[in-house]
Amino acid sequence: MExxxxxxxxxxxxxxxxxxxxxxxxxxxxxxxxxxxxxYLLRKVAILLFTLWVAATLNFILPRLVPGDPVSVMxxxxxxxxxxxxxxxxxxxxxxxxxxxxxxxxFGYLGRLLRxxxxxxxxxxxxxxxxVIGTALPYTLGLVGVTTVVSFVLGSALGLYSxxxxxxxxxxxxxxxxxxxxxxxxxxxxLLTLYIFAxxxxxxxxxxxxxxxxxxxxxxxxxxxxxxxxxxxxxTILVTSLGGWLIxxxxxxxxxxxxxxxxxxxxxxxTERRIVSRYVLRNALLPSFTSFGxxxxxxxxxxxxxxxxxxxxxxxxxxxxxxxxxxYPLMQGIFFFIALTVLxxxxxxxxxxxxxxxxxxxxxx
Amino acid sequence: MSGIRSLLRQPFFSQPRAxxxxxxxxxxxLLGLLAPVITRYDPTSLxxxxxxxxxxxxxxxxxAIGQDIFAQLLYGARLTLLVGxxxxxxxxxxxxxxxxxxxxxxxxxxEAINALINVFLVLPGxxxxxxxxxxLRGGGVWPVIIVISFTGxxxxxxxxxxxxxxxxxxxxxxxxVASGEGAGRVVFMEILxxxxxxxxxxxxxxxxYAVLSEAGLSFIGVGDVSLVTxxxxxxxxxxxxxxxxxxxxxxxxxxxxxxxxxxxxxxLNFSIDQLGNPRLARGRATLPARxxxxxxxxxxxxxxxxQPLLAVRDLDVGYASAGGVVRAVRQVSLDVxxxxxxGLAGESGCGKSTLAFAVTRLLAPPGAVLGGSVQLMGQDLxxxxxxALRQVRWRDFxxxxxxxxxxxxxxxxxxxxxxDAMQAHGVTDPKRLDARARELFGLVxxxxxxxxxxxxxxxxxxxxxxxxxxxxxxxxxxIVMDEPTTALDVVVQxxxxxxxxxxxxxxxxxxxxxxHDLSLLVEMSDRVAIMYxxxxxxxxxxxxxxxxxxxxxTQQLMNAFPPMTGPR
Lengths: 365, 568
Prior knowledge:
heterodimer, A: MetI-like fold, 14 helices, 69% helix, B: alpha/beta, four-stranded antiparallel beta sheet, disordered N terminus
């Protein structure tokens, strides 16, 4: 047997024959222009609209599943205190005035929804539901917006530390602490915070969003009043939601740490700083963004309970009021708006994802 | 995910977290079950005074209407655990049913279920539960359980669906389908047993959600507040102004119970999850420190002709495992002369890659160097650390990985990844960087415009060329190539190898080329080393090794060549 150099190669393929055709590995040339991934966007818009529709439909169906009807329950509760126009409005809202088939009722309901007509609140009659939501929404958005961003940044930073330095005492201790913090009932933690810092120590006010007479809006005194009322709700939501981000980020970092591109980055002699910022962080953040949607639902849930404990006049507080007062139109309106808020935030995150992940941009992921 | 057998085999309950979680859960369960034994009071009887302080008779005092709080706490554990367990079970069953159907049937069924999952994932859970419960008020604990189950299944369904989809594509499932097994049999006998761990983790996640949701619902008075659960205890404590009365224990006790139960569920969920994803497992097996390093052979600086570029002496490398240290590389000594092409061959698992990782200081725990020395240009590589090691990397030696498909960072442009290797070693002028990057791409035959591509836009062969171009960026003295072409088809493999050979001779770079393909090495190398079971069994110039293999293992490897003529 004689081995002729160049004749046999690897898995026994004749390479002489291959020299005759020059294969260019560059072909086919993939278009490199990074254009917006329109199908991705369209799909996300479709999911947004579809989910909104489901929320609206649940709002329509749920009252109709109740044995008996909500209007008579409410009439009994507000015996003699509801004026006739409110009773009519209720009957129309719940389709109890024989307006037609359930199908036509349903489309009538969707039509009113599209026009922004959520009916009138019962407990705050005759204030339109939309007006109640209008007063409450800024507080909820302020609280949710600030806490979510701070909690995400801080939790992810701690998770990055915990994952990157794992094996170290502090880094490993962070995980069980985070698990415990995220297993606490939000409102319970809020109650204890309120008891200690507002009731016992009197460092912060007991509830509300502003003092009764805070001064002119956006004046220095007004801001200070706002901040003092904001601090405790903010801290409780922060502490109870931080753990979730920490665990998510830690898990992502651990997965990324065993990726080949990380070993390659290390082999290249990159500085630790660059490895963490450009290789670990960028890649580990992406799954965090993807799970942002679900986490946001949890934050909102915590927010509702926290608002109740601190009598913070946001959507959660009014939702509670509407549940206590059997104010079904307000309840439904608030649910729809909370869903809308979460969905829009989700959509914003999807857009951000589009910016951060070239694979999503190209429609590969 | 591992099946039930590996679940039992794995040291699951040796994990401190699993142990803690299981312990807490068991304790709470026992407290609930043994409530009549532990306390003689009825949780609902109103026989005591209001707001009695902590005392021997009433360890947690009494409520505003004279109930014993300690008795309530014990009995409350029953319903709270029941809600967690039953709602967790229903939600998990829903997740499994929907996730598996989606994965097994695919097509429009999958589309529909996936849409449903997405909707329930983004619909905010608690408000939905509140709305639903508001319409289902009264009627005991079951409406609450049902509502919580029907809002808490989506996350699990999503996880199980993707896991089942991965399993669906696996060979053993495909084989079962092809052999005509019915859908039920395939799902229940083939797919489900392999997902038990994930399903268990999922159950504890759902139970955690259920307990927290029940507490939240009860707290705002939705559901049935006449029942005794930890959630309703908090409702009454709040409604009766317990904190204003200073009876903080009325609030603290049930809340702490929920937090502990939640932590137990979270710990169990987390621990089971770790079994399926060992990378998350905490801690690292410990290795003995590198002891008794034999004095490295001093190299005579006068005799520069004989001075090897790379000198490996008596290198011992091992991996820590549960059963002790597994030695993967034993007493290996190798020299590479400047500009030399050294082939390193051996079967899979013989320690070639471990050797390469140890020499290039890329060995990650549980691997560790146990003894020996590695000198590059007279510098002790194993003694370097931190900034000194970082500076030597890529400037003096570079590495081309076995799995080059995944060595490029998916979120950075190729240009940045070629640049940063140079930037890390002092080349910062943008013009120089650009010029060098173009030059390198020309060298390995990739069009310049691909500098602005993302890795996923490149084919496998192009990625490999980019990696080789990067390895050449600083013109190191040595490149270690660990099976750089194994994953490529033979045509591309051939081209790349030819280019490596050309560039190496032109630039005078030494190459350590690792492969299991001996025929390839004999063709390309100056010298070949054969590795077997962690040891170098033979080293010789390529032609000599080919003509007169000495070691029996080498002879066997040679006989594995396909003969050029005659019957195969």
